[in-house]
């Protein structure tokens, strides 16, 4: 039996689902209803990468990584090398930014330990509460880490809101998406067409496809979801975190329709049309 979520009682909510499932409109509803703040993996990475870039270090960051041990050199050594650049900066943030940058700028897979450290540092800044988490946790190790932090800090994870959508719908939605490079208005070849199939209806600029919106990239994100995130959700459910599926696809996608579908699921999660097996 899932307790009804009450404003003011909520510590943290997880919003999970495939990339392109339609998480953001649901997150917006939760932010407006419960006064929470969104913490997304993308924003976390951007903020720490910025913290590192701002110190203006021009040396080679590969020097801080020891390929023999497969790890970074000690924080003390890194601190000594960066000393001249650190005035007025928080070394912890710069160090995390440097580690993130090493992987991101070399196009390498970011290990869970680094993602976890970045997440922890951000979560701590909010005193571990008042957060809608988006894009984290994405693997079982990240989910275990999150649960252990919540326990240690005596904070709740009140619910997993799972935005459910099928692969075919996501593929159609994402690969049909076009964006205006001038005014950033978003279109869809079928559902929200461009002028003459090419131009922004707002400013007349020729619209483009985002680099992440290709079929290959969508398929690779869906594969990663199947292989990693699905088991992370199962793990979180096994920790007795209330699981509330909401439909990512609605007959009409108005703000009002999104809001009432989220509320209906929150009011009566057990009557949801989805079951745990279908995730
Ligand atoms: Zn435009």
Q: What can you tell me about this protein's structure?
A:
With 279 residues, the protein is an alpha/beta fold. The protein is 43% helix and 12% strand. Strands 2-5-1-6-9 form a 5-stranded parallel sheet. It is globular and about 60 Å long. Bound molecules: zinc ion (ZN).
Strand and helix layout:
Elements: E1 12-16, H1 23-34, E2 37-40, H2 41-53, E3 65-66, E4 71-72, H3 75-82, H4 91-105, H5 112-125, E5 131-134, H6 140-152, E6 159-164, H7 167-175, E7 177-179, E8 186-188, H8 215-238, E9 243-247, H9 255-267
Parallel strand pairs: 1-5, 1-6, 2-5, 6-9
Antiparallel strand pairs: 3-4, 7-8
Helix pairs in contact: 1-9, 2-4, 2-5, 4-5, 5-6, 6-8, 7-8
Question: The biggest beta sheet, please?
Answer: 5 strands, parallel
> Helical content, roughly?
40-55%
Helix/strand/pairing class, anyone? Answer: alpha/beta
Shape call: globular
**Average pLDDT for all residues:** 91
User: Total number of helical segments?
Assistant: 9
Q: How many β strands by DSSP?
A: 9
**Biggest sheet, strands in spatial order?**
2-5-1-6-9
* Unreliable spans: 275-279
Ions and ligands: zinc ion
Cα-based radius of gyration, to the nearest Å: 21 Å
Q: Distance between termini?
A: 19 Å
Secondary-structure element order, N to C = EHEHEEHHHEHEHEEHEH
Beta content comes to 5-15%
């Amino acid at each position: 039996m899932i307790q009804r979520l009450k404003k003011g009682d909520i510590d943290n909510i997880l919003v999970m689902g495939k990339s392109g499932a339609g998480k953001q409109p649901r997150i917006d509803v939760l932010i407006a209803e419960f006064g929470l703040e969104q913490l997304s993996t993308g924003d976390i990475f951007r903020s720490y990468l910025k913290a590192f870039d701002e110190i203006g270090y021009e040396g080679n960051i590969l020097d801080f990584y020891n390929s023999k041990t497969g790890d970074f050199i000690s924080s003390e050594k890194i601190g000594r090398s960066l000393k001249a650049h650190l005035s007025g900066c928080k070394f912890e943030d710069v160090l995390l930014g440097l580690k993130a940058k090493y992987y991101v700028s070399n196009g390498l897979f970011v290990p869970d330990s680094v993602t976890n450290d970045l997440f922890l540092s951000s979560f701590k800044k909010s005193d571990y509460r008042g957060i809608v988490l988006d894009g984290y946790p994405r693997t079982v190790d990240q989910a275990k880490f999150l649960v252990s932090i919540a326990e240690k800090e005596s904070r709740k994870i009140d619910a997993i809101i799972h935005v459910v959508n099928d692969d075919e719908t996501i593929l159609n939605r994402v690969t049909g998406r076009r964006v205006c490079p001038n005014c950033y208005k978003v279109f869809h070849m079928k559902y929200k067409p461009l002028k003459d199939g090419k131009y922004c209806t707002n400013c007349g600029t020729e619209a483009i496809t985002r680099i992440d919106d290709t079929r290959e990239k969508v398929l690779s994100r869906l594969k990663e979801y199947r292989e990693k995130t699905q088991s992370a959700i199962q793990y979180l459910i096994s920790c007795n975190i209330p699981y509330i599926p909401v439909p990512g696809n609605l007959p009409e996608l108005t703000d009002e329709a999104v809001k009432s579908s989220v509320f209906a699921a929150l009011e009566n999660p057990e009557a949801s049309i989805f079951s745990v097996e279908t995730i």
